[in-house]
Amino acid sequence: MTVLPVIKNIDIDFKSLQDKERSIYFDNNSTTEIDEDAATSMLVAAESGYGNPSTSHRHGRDAKIALESAREAVAKFMSANQEEVIFTSGGTESINTAINSAICTSSKKRIISCKTEHKATLSKLKSLDKTHDIILLPVDNDGRIDLNDFKQFINNNTCLVTLMAANNETGTYHNNLTEIIDIARRHGAATHIDAVQVAGKESLARFMDMGPNLMSISGHKFHAPKGIGALYISKNTPFVPLIFGGEQEFAKRAGTENVPSAIALGIAASKARYLSDELRDLFIHLLKNSIPSIAINGALGVANTVNVGFPGVHRDALVTELSNNKLMASTGSACTKGTTPSHVLLAMNISEEYIHSSVRFSFSKLTTKSEIEKSIPIIKNAYERILSISG
Ligand code: PLP
Fold first, then answer.
1. What is the average per-residue pLDDT within 149-178?
2. Is residue 159 flagged as an active site residue?
3. C-alpha 271: how far from its chain's center?
4. pLDDT > 70? residue 268
5. Integer Cα distance of 222 and 231 in angstroms
6. What distance, in Å, lies between the first and last C-alpha atoms of the chain?
7. Separation of 68 CA from ligand 1 center, angstroms?
8. Residue 209, pLDDT score
């Protein structure tokens, strides 16, 4: 498909980016390549299935059937019931909706989260610091919460505990999550899991079994398009919407549904293939052999992610040099650029030597062993080149 000529300045040759021979894409925590079936179905739905699912004529009914079958697939993927899943515009909206609902349905004032959460959580919580008592738990050098810290802060005035399943920059799990959710529940606090970085990489059943009230996922992290996600709201959880208007999404998220993207999300969810540690571990092994001075930041967690410190070089220079050599990696988070150090690595007390020199490599179900092997000399050459330039 050609890009619409009516939009000025869009003459980028996107097609060439897809040429696998030409680049290695190790930035899947930022976003993933869209699944072909998801893309095709989305296009068909946009072109032909344009009915509004809230109308009762044929076009509307067909759109509604497609929307509900997508919801069924997403609910299955989340190990949830269909009526417990609403579509949103992505992870950020799901997280904001979850936090907003927890504070609107409770008179309690404490919210507990963690310093290494995604900006979607941290910025929302910052906006509440005049009205709420926000506790951001510290982490250790590996990026993990100490359960005793949590126990010290949880009390009967806590309305919400919100934590991520795995960190987007390091892949590290909050490994005490089961106990934390259990203790929070016993104190009458609502619980929310930001599952954005585990969804599509491993089964969500393990996290659902912990019994959270709310759970967020985002489509573009597992081969669905951008701008679509879902929020799980367990049956008995009191809920107040973030967005008011019509009665769509069980009256929990107003606005005409994004049917094409919801269909694509359902397809990506039903095609999810969980990852093993194998490729990541091979990558670490080969890279350490090739550049012994590297450091791995954080405890290894979700199977697709590794955050590597390269002493003596700046992360932006390295990422640019890698990109020039057709290897796409990133400096950690799309929200952390330039001279601002990563809030995740800062919270982990990573040494100065590594904090500005850390690069995240994140794989997907499409990553191959051959790509892992090919990437090592590219990284080594890029590293040595920057090191020699910077003296
Ligand atoms: N939570 C985590 C852990 C993320 O990594 C991201 C995106 O990077 C988000 C939330 C936000 O998701 P979205 O880009 O769909 O708004």
1. 97
2. no
3. 18
4. yes
5. 15
6. 47
7. 24
8. 98
CA distance 113 to 163: 6
Q: 91 alpha carbon to ligand 1 midpoint, in Å? A: 5
Of 164, 221, 333, the residue with max ligand 1 atoms within 8 A of its CB, to mutate for a pocket test, comes to 221
pLDDT at 21: 60
Residue to substitute in 196, 223, 231, 305 for testing ligand 1 pocket (most ligand atoms within 8 angstroms of CB):
196
The yes-or-no verdict on residue 91 having pLDDT over 80 is yes
The length of the chain is: 391
Binning pLDDT at 50, 70 and 90, where does residue 366 land? very high
Tokens standing for residue 328:
């796409």
> Distance, CA 96 to ligand 1 centroid (Å)?
11
Is 70 exceeded by the pLDDT of residue 124?
yes
* Residue found under tokens 């610091």: 129
> Which tens digits make up the pLDDT trace of 38-89?
999 999 999 999 999 999 999 999 999 999 999 999 999 999 999 999 999 9
Average pLDDT estimate for 116-124 = 98
pLDDT reported for residue 1: 46
**pTM, to two decimals:** 0.95
DSSP 140-203: -TTS---HHHHHHH--TTEEEEEEESB-TTT--B-TTHHHHHHHHHHTT-EEEEE-TTTBTTB-
Q: Which residue lies with its CA nearest to atom 5 of ligand 1? A: 168
Question: What pLDDT is recorded for position 340?
Answer: 81
Q: Which residues contact 95 (CB under 8 A, 6 or more apart)?
A: 118, 120, 121, 124, 162, 192, 194, 216
List ligand 1's pocket residues with C-beta within 6 A.
90-92, 95, 118, 120, 164, 168, 194, 196-197, 218, 229
Supply the mean pLDDT for the chain.
94
Residues 6+ apart with CB under 8 A from 69: 266
